[in-house]
Amino acid sequence: AVTVYVTVVITTQLANRVGKEAGSVMFSCDASGIPAPQFYWTHNTNNITSGGDQVISTDGKTLTVSKLVYDYRGMYACFASNVVNTVSTTGSLTVNVPPREPVTVPTNGTQDIDLGMSAIFSCTFAASRPVTVTWD
Fold it and tell me: What tens digit of pLDDT does each residue of 7-39 get?
């Protein structure tokens, strides 16, 4: 008997996705090969286990990411593998977060300076688009 193996080839590439906070997105990929490839997924190079907000379809070809939060942004990859080779396709996810009510940043105490001297104030935050920071 002769056994024939065929390298895996991606037939459906991942597309970049944009989602709204609390929404959901779906990534799909497909590949051919003999034997038929097995699929697995990563987010920012970390393996994804199906469950919770990240569900992989039974055939492994679709990843649904739900209840989107800002931390779910980044690069997603679909890997297809058989005994011959492993190939992958990547797509990015952008999560748009709506503006919030003004945020008051607590101070770390007070600082006394002499008249004419400079003071430095800082504020750290993350945003999915340009924001305006005002000081009162």
Answer: 999 999 999 999 999 999 999 999 999 999 999
